[in-house]
Fold:
Amino acid sequence: MSDDLITKPRVKAKPKLERPKLHKVILLNDDFTPREFVVTVLKAEFSMSEDQAHRVMITAHRRGVCVVAVFPKDVAETKAVRATDAGRAKGYPLMFTTEPEE
Ligand code: TYC
Structure:
């Protein structure tokens, strides 16, 4: 038998990894946090312009919620906590949550 002529396949099957889901950071409206403070937090934590931040704030104010941005899970969670804490430090009930994108 000419076993030594049998060579291994050179190409290994490489199972494709799923791309990890991005997570949305969501801003929730409340009746107490001043509008301008919401804008300040959006600018500081999410690197938004005054214009972008104002649009997001107004959308949450009118509709109850607004998606701020999407990030990898750990980044989204850290930013949501930091932004929520910024409000709490001033005694405001400002709230950011996260959820996985579909
Ligand atoms: N509704 C608040 C007010 O009238 C402003 C506000 C907007 C608060 C958006 C939170 O996510 C928010 N002062």
About this structure: The CA atoms of residues 7 and 75 lie 47 Å apart. The first helix runs from residue 35 to 46. The chain is about 40% helix and 20% strand. The beta strands are 22-28, 65-72, 95-100.
